[in-house]
Amino acid sequence: MAVVRERRHPNLKLPLPDSAADRRPRFPLPLPPTALTTSRPTDVDRLSDLEKLQVLGHGNGGTVYKVRHRRTGALYALKIVQSDCDSSVRRQMLREMDILRRTDSPYVVRCHGIFEKSCGDIGLVMEYMDGGTLDCLLRRQSGTFSEDFLAGISRQVLEGLSYLHSHKIVHRDIKPSNLLVNRKMEIKIADFGVSKIMCRTLDACDSFVGTCAYMSPERFDPDTYGGAYNGYAGDIWSLGLTLLELYIGHFPFLPPGQRPDWATLMCAICFGEPPSLPETASDEFRSFIKCCLQKDSSRRWTVAQLLAHPFVAKERDLMAKMEGLSIS
């Protein structure tokens, strides 16, 4: 495989192992001509206006807090990365800042303020999603998710990817822990630290960024699985694996609890058959997953095609009817 000859393997472990960030500094990222050209106004003027309530999580060189605006009472998630963090972490943060300050979609987590302190610390004030991540929601559940619920997740994530891809942004790390949910069961795409703005049609898209467990076969060996690594198609593969995991309750390529090394996982993705659904799955869901998990990236369905797939279209029609009833 080309990856063995030409690439240095990152040191990655499951579950959800994050690879090292792209080591070539290319910031700030330029916007393509078709993308948004101005930053949205922020809703938080000063970090001192925010009161820390609790720690939501740690990781990747930063801490995320649940905070409350002292004047308005609005709740936010505040991500702080210290100035002495690893240089790769700082580059990821800068990449995420550059994308978030220009995105505005109900299916992408919203940024309400970006702050760079004189000491070098960076703060991101994000939309607070009170349901946490889909990964946490799955762990809290006594069972797995139903097909009806997964159809709703699929539609919302595809709408988010449609927005991002139309602005030439590939996420490169779609997985349950990067999809946030609130109590209204709205799903939003988050964590753009390894995302990329494709400035030109033939832009190269680095293979080894993101989480290797959710990487598509062409990210390991593009010559065999489609002729080139296509970041847009890679997002679709990751979505397919995410939905499978939420349906069966564990990472699809492995038995529950197994923790293989990187080489074992690469072989499973590249040489094994795509994971199959249990017999309880409907034909529509089987078809949808098959369209996402085509090993040849050139045969994988696009976002637009998947939004028209019967598995998702049925849920879209239902939502449209409900909106029509609420308006009348």
From TrEMBL:
Keyword Nucleotide-binding: yes
Protein kinase domain location: 50-312
Ranges of compositional bias, category Basic residues: 1-11
GO biological process entries: response to other organism; response to stress
Keyword Transmembrane helix: no
Phylogenetic lineage: Eukaryota, Viridiplantae, Streptophyta, Embryophyta, Tracheophyta
InterPro entries: Kinase-like_dom_sf, Prot_kinase_dom, Protein_kinase_ATP_BS, Ser/Thr_kinase_AS
Family affiliation: Belongs to the protein kinase superfamily. STE Ser/Thr protein kinase family. MAP kinase kinase subfamily.
EC number: 2.7.12.2
Reaction(s) catalysed (UniProt annotation): L-tyrosyl-[protein] + ATP = O-phospho-L-tyrosyl-[protein] + ADP + H(+); L-seryl-[protein] + ATP = O-phospho-L-seryl-[protein] + ADP + H(+); L-threonyl-[protein] + ATP = O-phospho-L-threonyl-[protein] + ADP + H(+)
Name of the protein this chain belongs to: mitogen-activated protein kinase kinase
Binding site for ATP: K79
Keywords: ATP-binding, Kinase, Nucleotide-binding, Phosphoprotein, Serine/threonine-protein kinase, Transferase
Disordered as annotated region, ranges: 1-41
Major enzyme class: transferase
Pfam families to which the protein is assigned, alphabetical: Pkinase (PF00069)
Protein's organism: Cinnamomum micranthum f. kanehirae
Positions in coiled-coil regions: none
GO-annotated molecular function: ATP binding; MAP kinase kinase activity; protein serine/threonine kinase activity
